[in-house]
Amino acid sequence: MTRTLLASVLATVLAVVGSALGVHFGKALRTRLELLVHLATGVLLGITAFDILPEAKAVLSWPAFLASGFGGYLLLWVMGRFVFYVCPSCAIAHIDESTALAKRSSIVLLAAALGTHCLLDGIAIAAGNGLSSRAETGALLAVALHKLPEGIALGLLLMSAKCRRSTAFLVALAIESITILGAVVGATVSKTPGQTLIGVVFAIVGGGFIYLVYNAFGGIFDHKIRLPRALGIGAEVLSFLVTGLLFWMSGR
After folding, report:
1. Is 187 strand, coil or helix?
2. Nearest to residue 88, comparing CAs of 171, 165, 182, 167?
């Protein structure tokens, strides 16, 4: 439990640092953020494909595995389609920062959508701990690597809503702290007998991560992209291949 909480706190700190950067430097970070997002997306896909989904399948039947993975994808799709972008950094090319939070009520929708995402992040860390040390490491890396760009994008969005810097930082801190709550929830689930429930949770998380990857990759073809398309695709492919190579080497 202590390791899980510490890991979730670390992930939250990375997001809060990113939010502080976004709040302080604003749109000057936009192009750099896009490159960072695509690098993190390739790593996230690699960890999901080579670690999270295989670890979940190892303790689940095919029907349970496919249903759980699809459920995770569907959950974030519904939030992103009907509430707000569940991951501002993954959807950065789709977001018009000047109008996304034009109404202050939109901040509530942002908190609900991103809060759901953060809850799953915390649950992922705890569920990984309940399966194996390899699964725990993979989940932590997947969460931690996308927390920094997520925080930067969140800071940019809040500043576009004309929030004061101190207010934007506190809102970001409150939303990202839900990651720790997710870790507590996940740790409770991990205490249940057997590994079937943990596997289901891990597959749900994996499905959610696939949605985030799809959303980020789709941003390459969005008209608001400022990063050269070839560079975005190249960054994702390179980071995916490097991640796969590292997992292959660790399994030898």
Report:
1. helix
2. 171
Q: Helices marked H in 26-61 — which ranges?
A: 30-47, 53-57
> What gap in Å lies between CA 214 and CA 232, rounded to an integer?
13
> Are 148 and 89 spatial neighbours (Cβ–Cβ below 8 Å)?
no
In the chain, the amino acid numbered 55 is E
Burial of 244 (0-12, 13-18, 19+ CB in 10 A): middle
The dihedral sign for the CA sequence 242, 243, 249, 252: negative
pTM here? 0.88
CA separation for the pair 248, 92 (Å, rounded): 31
Q: Which residues contact 213 (CB under 8 A, 6 or more apart)?
A: 41, 44, 45, 48, 90
| Tens-binned pLDDT, residue by residue, of the chain (252 aa) | 678 889 999 999 999 999 999 888 866 776 678 888 888 899 999 999 999 999 999 999 999 999 999 999 999 999 988 988 888 877 766 666 555 565 556 788 888 999 999 999 999 998 888 787 778 888 888 998 889 999 988 888 888 777 888 998 999 999 999 999 999 998 888 788 778 999 999 999 999 999 999 888 876 666 555 667 788 889 899 999 999 898 888 764
Q: How many CB atoms lie within 10 A of CB 5?
A: 16
